[in-house]
Amino acid sequence: MEEAKNMALLFFMDHLMQKNGRRTIHDLSCQFGARGFSEEMRNAVGTTQEGLTEFLQGHPSLFTVEGDQVILNGHNDLNAKNNPLLQSGVRSRNYEKEAVDFFVTKLTKFGPELQIKSLLGHRSQAAPEVRLVSGRHLKEFCEFLSSQVDYFVVEADRVRLKNMPEPDENAIEMDDEGRPLAGVKAKQAAVEYLKSVLEQNEDQPIPLDLFYQNFCQRFSHTIRQDVATNPKELLQFLKLNRGLFFIRSNKVSLVKNRPNEEGSENGSDEGDETNNNGMFPLDQSALTRIHFVKALKPAQDLIARLWQDINNMEKKVVGLDLKTVTVGVDGEIFLSLGVIATTSQIGIFDLASSDVIILESGFKGILESEKVVKVIHDARRVASLLAHKYAVHMRNVFDTQVAHSLLQHDKFGKPVHEMRPITFINLQRVYYPQSLMLSDVTPRKMSQSPNWGVRPITEEFQLTIVEEAHCLLSALYQALSNLIPVHLRGLFEDKCIEVLLASPNRPPPQPFISSPYRASTRRDARNGGTIMQSFSPAPYAAAPRPQMSDACTQTFSTGDIEVLNVFYE
User: Fold this and answer.
1) Do the domains 1-72 and 174-254 sit in the same CATH topology, yes or no?
2) What are the TM regions of this chain, as residue ranges (predicted)?
3) 247 by DSSP, 3-state: which?
4) DSSP three-state, residue 153
5) Can you tell me the distance from the alpha carbon of 336 to that of 354, in angstroms, rounded to the nearest whole number?
6) What is the mean pLDDT of the chain?
7) Which region among 39-43, 228-232, 430-434, 543-547 has the lowest average model confidence (pLDDT)?
8) CATH top-level class of 1-72
9) Are 52 and 76 in contact (CB under 8 A)?
10) Strand partners, 110
């Protein structure tokens, strides 16, 4: 009976901790039927609200009962270290060891490496004392895992078993040139090995868990980090190669008639043709074609070179990506980086340092050009920001988010506005999985969102920045263009215009009757009237060169102004 009372105390303390330390007697009595609250515990505390009230009042050091409210004493300061019920002197069970065993079991089943927040999600299945010992929140849970150095290894937002299974003597560690396997070569080696395993059991599908065990027996953890560190990540990896692997009911087999299905299902014929259409591969050798600028004069020169590439195109198409950062308590969004990709080079513009680059370098002219198709993913997220803060109104975009929604609408018949948005990573997985296979992106990078506000920008980070614009232009534009049915092309164009409309509390884009430059107003000193000053559109045959004038009579994108005598009351 004493053990049942202690278990009930732990249960109610855990429940109150999750509910900010205060609940009603009625709410606590409703927990009598909860999972983990045994019949012995109900008998120990009484089976009614009155009995529960007397039970809680009998422990004034833990609970304060005020009317129908129950308050957990010292809620803000209470944790596993100072919990009186979990002190070694008053307990007969080693709850800390039980917690370690619980999470080791979960990592063995679902790991051996997981995101910490994923492992935390399994904690709800544990006993109340295990949840108390392992910490109430993510930070405390990380501290608990880090303290158990004999069982867990914590790296950034991930945790793995220290004594996880390692490969046998037939492990693959080196490539054909004698260098350690990494990146794309590691993925290719994994595909070849997994295919060979299935070929040996071609008549019998292999369960995913057993398939992952075979994978772990051949590759070390260092190599697995580039491919898959748990069965769930292996499933995602296999889906990137769905022309080879067929998955049903968590069982893996080889695809029948692979040569025919690979071209139709993966879209590999379209992707390869597009990727070889003058677009360079994105690897270390591509750094010579990537140009990063953070000042006005280099940005003007880079825009001029980009215009030369655009004017030489038969069909003027560029890949566009705008990276944003969220700042402050209110979550205000700012532009951090702008990326424009052509078939021969990619420009990265540091927009965080000054607005001058986007307004005066010619970057704005490309965004507002009707003659240049801008391939972008989810233009809606930046259209209002550009219109409101910079008076930049994008035109003629090919939005892959819209294209995906229309394709899902055509396939399933749901209204377009009810379609859930898709992330760019998932867009690659669906329409061009080869881009993930042919890049050095790891499962860890897929699960993390880079901080686009980081400075300085390294060469390795430059490859990460340009990846989206490169993939949009090299593969996804042509692949999605070919998939959109003829009867939906008009609707697609209308939806691409719709996403460029600013939100109701921001100015909408103006019709294309003025120049790419913002019209300015000035006071006519002679008659006190207002004259609208506008500029004729800049010719797109060559990159416009901004005219220089005295700094005291120049403003952003408005040209020269006339200084007037203005008096205020």
Assistant:
1) yes
2) none
3) strand
4) strand
5) 10
6) 78
7) 543-547
8) mainly alpha
9) no
10) none
Instruction: Tell me what percent of the chain is helix, strand and coil, each rounded to the nearest 5.
Output: 50, 15, 35
- Give, in order, the Cα–Cα distances in Å from 484 to each of 421, 451, 480: 17, 33, 6
Residue 523: predicted pLDDT = 43
Instruction: Find, among 184, 215, 182, the residue nearest to 197 by Cα.
Output: 215
Residue 71, pLDDT score: 81
In 276-379, which residue ranges form alpha helices assigned H by DSSP?
Answer: 296-311, 356-360, 363-368
Q: Residue 154: what are its φ and ψ, rounded to 5°?
A: -100, 125
| pTM across the whole model | 0.63
Taking the chain, what is the end-to-end CA distance rounded to the nearest angstrom? 84
Token pair, residue 123, equals: 């904690």
Q: What angle do CA 52, 56, 58 make, to 5 degrees?
A: 120
Sheet holding 22-24, edge to edge: 22-24, 69-72, 63-66
Within its chain, how far is the Cα of 454 from the centroid?
16
Residue type, 244: L
Q: Is the dihedral of CA 312, 313, 316, 319 positive or negative?
A: negative
What topology does CATH give the domain 95-161?
A: Arc Repressor Mutant, subunit A (1.10.10)
Residue 86, classed as helix, strand or coil, is helix
Sign of CA dihedral 13, 16, 22, 27: negative
State the average pLDDT over residues 410-418: 87
* pLDDT score for 440: 67
Cβ atoms of 117 and 124 within 8 Å: the answer is: no
- Please give the CATH number for the structural domain made up of 285-500: 3.30.420.10
